[in-house]
Design brief:
Blueprint: H1 3-17, H2 22-41
Length: 52
């Protein structure tokens, strides 16, 4: 994505949520991405019957 697409999306987000909510949204997004990456990198646990 180019600079103008990112700038446009940020502008739309600011209009919908307001500047005060942006830090909370960014924190939530970062936390969700961290959790997702952690789940992907964690070894798969075996199920009770031994099959994966």
């Amino acid at each position: 994505m180019g600079f103008w697409e990112v700038a446009l999306m940020l502008g739309v987000v600011m209009i919908f949520f307001g500047a005060k909510k942006l830090p909370q949204l960014a924190r939530g997004l970062g936390s969700g991405i961290r959790n997702f990456k952690g789940e992907l990198s964690a070894p798969a646990e075996e199920s009770e019957d031994g099959e994966e």
